[in-house]
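The data layer described in this paper is built around a simple, fixed record for each protein. Because each token names a local backbone shape, the row as a whole describes the fold. We quote a single record here, exactly as it is kept in our systems:

***
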Amino acid sequence: MNLFAITELWEQAVSWLSTHFVVPVFSALHVLELSGDPKEIAQAMLLGLTQLAIIALIFRPLENVIPAERWPDRKSTWVDIEYTLIILLGLLPLFTYLVLNPLIHWLGADTGAATADSEPLINLAGIFPVLGQHPLLMFLVYYLIYDFVYYWMHRSQHLMPWFWALHSVHHSQRHVSCWTNDRDSYLAGLIEALILASVGLVIGVAPSEFALLMLLGELVQNFSHANVRISFGPVFEKVLVGPKFHRLHHMIVDPARPGLHNCNFSQAFPVWDILFGTALYHEPPHPTGVCDPMVDSDSNVGLIGQQWAALRRFWGAVSCKAGWTPGDVAFGPDYRPIPSQHLDLFAMASTNTHLAEIAANRLKQ
């Protein structure tokens, strides 16, 4: 099958999904007029299905062949599969076309085209005319900017207690796998998407391009979370984020080096960690998870329970001074943050027998 045939097949699939699913469903919900081109929504959903196929047929089998850690079972990863399905096939397309498009329209651009009839605040093609002549190069520049913003947003999620209260759902997974990327608080996801979409509007990223940026970022992170012993080698590991690099970001607190886990925040390009001093290489694998028993208990409940716990931590943090004071924290029974300098997080973990046993067993393997 040649490239033309594949492209034609893709367009046919987009048209069929748009006609038989997107238009009827959005019409029934009375939101079709807010959603822009139904074909763009259908395309985002097909991209999500493609991504799911890549995760299930490539990344997941690799975890059986070359696992970074061996687990007695994978039951704890099931909830992460639920997160992935909901994000890729529901929330991401809905946000892009029901929130982003009205925002663009409100800012003065035609719905469905961020830059067709309006000038972005920062016109990259105007500053660098060569970008306007090479769409692929323009998209790469967009992705570099997207990745730079993501790096600092991600660091903020670990630095600010109220943001960590939400993001901690993601790190509470003891069995980090190719499905873990989308395990997060939905409120955190909304904040992240609004930040990234706002940057996209400033530099003139069209909604369809923004959807592709988000989906590409998702796929990169699905791979970097995979439970596999893969590194890109001494040269390319400095160019692209791989599973070995990102797994260190999910490490449990090391009692001998308590700040070691504050590392490797980049999504796709480690250059940001290298430039800003947060890159960690040449470190053996560590057990993944958190030492805070309040956050670790997320692994004992399902998706709804995790979302509720994150919201309670968020309210406990955002409503007090400690929640706005940068630094590592744990959460008390009242869901309020406690600065970690007043606690021994590793000792806290040792009071949670289940977590301590898992960490000890993994370190022996």
Observations:
- Residues 3-286 form one domain.
- The two ends are 46 Å apart (CA to CA).
